[in-house]
Amino acid sequence: MTTPREAWIRNYVDGGFVDPDPERSFENLDPATGQLVARVHEADIALVDRAVRSARRALDNGWADTPVRERAALLRRAADRIEERFEEFVAAEMADTGKPITQARELDVARALTNFRTFADVVASAGQESFLTDLGGGRQALNYAVRKPLGVVAVIVPWNLPLLLLTWKVAPALACGNAVVVKPSEETPSTATLLAEVLEEVGLPAGVYNVVHGFGGNSAGEFLTDHPDIDGVTFTGSSATGSHVMKTVAPRVRPVSFELGGKNAAVVFDDVDIDEALAGLTRSVFANTGQVCLCAERVYVQRSIFDDIAAGLVERAEGLRLGRPADATTTTGPLISQAHREKVRSYLEIAEQAGAKVLTGGGIPDLGAELAGGSWIEPTLWTGLTNADRAVREEIFGPVAALIPFDTEQEAISLANDTEYGLAAAVWTNDLRRGHRVAQQMRVGISWVNTWFTRELRSPFGGAGLSGIGREGGESSLHFYTEPTNVCVQL
Ligand code: NAD
C-alpha cells in the first residue's frame, strides 16, 4: 500500500523539503490509538552531511553577521506566525504524542511562542563584559568580550515536550546568529517539520534551520553528532544517550549542553496546606502522564500527614480522566509508545517484587475499542519502598511515584539528595525559612518551594550529576550559543 504524498513527514535541508525515499522510511504512530499518522523519511548520512554543509554556507553567506535587532525581529515574527497557525501545531503535537488538547494548547504550543519572544528580548538587551585592568604607573588596559555565534549547532531533542524543548534551544541559537541542524525524536517528527514552514514563511535564510529525521545510533542522530563540521551539540534526552553523545563528540572537543534525565523528589512537611500541596503534587507526579523530566517520582512526606497525603493523592489519581486527546475534559494521555509502556510496566513488576503496596493503578486501563491499540497505563502510587529499591533509584518516566515517610528535616534532605540525578526538587511547606533552607540544600538545578514547573525563562535551567552538563535560559543560553573573543587594549 502506498501512503499519500501529504502523509509524508519530510526532511528540510537548505531551505527546501526533500523528496521522500520510500525505501528509507519509518512509521509515525499515534500513541493514543496505535494508528498510522504518517510515514517519516529517514535521513541517510549523505543527507545529514548536506544539512550540515548548508548550515555552514548560510553562516558564511551572512547570517552570522545579521544585526541583532534583525534576528530578534525575525524571532518575533516566528512567534506571531506560530500563533496564527496555532491549531495546526496543536493537532500535530497531539497526533504525535497523544497528549490532551488542553495541555498541547496551554503548555506545549503556548511555550513555543514564549520561547521565541523571550529570547528575542534577551538577545536584544544583552550587554557585554568589560574590565578595566590597572597596569600600574597610571596605565590601564581595557578588556571587552565580543560574542560571536558558536557556528553550526546540532540540536537533538526527545519526544515528551517536542516543540517546547525544540524551540527552547532553536530560539536562543538563532538569536545568537547560529545555524542549526535539528534532529527531533523519531517518535515526534511533526512539529519540528511544521516549524520549518513557519521559519521559511517569516524569511529565515535558507540553510539556517534544517531538520533531519531518524533514530539515534547508526542513524540521523549519530550521523549528526559525529559530523566533523558541527561546532557544538545541544541535547535533551536520557542520561545514557547523553553519555553516548559525549563520547561521539569527544575526539573533536566540541562544547555540549546536556539536559538529561531525572529522579526528582518532592518533600512535603507537615505544616502545609494539604489541599494546595495535593494539587501541586498531583501535577508534579502525573503531568504529561509522568513524562516530564521534572516530574516527581519520589514523594517524601512527613510522617504525621503521610496517610492524609497518600489518601488525597490516590483520590486525585483516580480522578484523572484518561481518554481521547481531542476531548477537552481529558487530563491524561497515553505513554509515548508500546516500547515505553513495556519499560514502565517492567518497573511496576520490579516495585511489586520489592514489596511495594500498590495504592492505586498498577495496570492497563480499558478505555474502549477506539483506544485499545494505544499505549495507555494507569496512574500508579506505591508505598512500602525505600531509597534502596530500583523503582526509587532509576528514572521510570511514567505516571508513577513512591510515597516514603520521613521524620526530620535533615532526614528529608538526605533522602531527597540520595540519588545520582540532580535535576529538580519541590519543597512543600508553610514555614518560610524552612522553605528557603531546604530548597537551597537540594543538589539540583532547580528547586521549587510550594510550586512545580513554574518557569522563568531568563533563569538558569539544567541539572547536576546524571541530569546534565551546563545551563541554558537567559544569559546562560547566550553563553552556550556564542563564543567570546576577549579584546585587550592597552590605554
Ligand atoms: P533518548 O535519549 O532516547 O532520545 C533523545 C534524542 O536522542 C532522540 O532524538 C533520539 O533519537 C536521539 N538519540 C538516541 N541515541 C542517539 C545517539 N546515539 N546519538 C545521537 N542521538 C541519539 O530520550 P527520550 O526517550 O527521547 O526522552 C526521554 C528522556 O529525556 C528522559 O530521560 C527525560 O528525563 C529526558 N528529558 C530531559 C529533559 C531536561 O530538560 N533535563 C527534558 C525532557 C526530557
TrEMBL record:
Residues annotated as domain Aldehyde dehydrogenase: 17-486
CDD domains, per the entry: ALDH_F8_HMSADH
Active-site annotation: 259
GO molecular function, one term: oxidoreductase activity
Pfam families (alphabetical): Aldedh
Name of the protein described by the UniProt record: 2-hydroxymuconic semialdehyde dehydrogenase
Organism encoding this protein: Rhodococcus oryzae
Enzyme Commission numbers on file: 1.2.1.85
Entry's family note: Belongs to the aldehyde dehydrogenase family.
Leading EC class: oxidoreductase
InterPro entries: Ald_DH/histidinol_DH (IPR016161), Ald_DH_C (IPR016163), Ald_DH_CS_CYS (IPR016160), Ald_DH_CS_GLU (IPR029510), Ald_DH_N (IPR016162), Aldehyde_DH_dom (IPR015590), OHmuconic_semiald_DH (IPR017628)
Keywords: NAD, Oxidoreductase
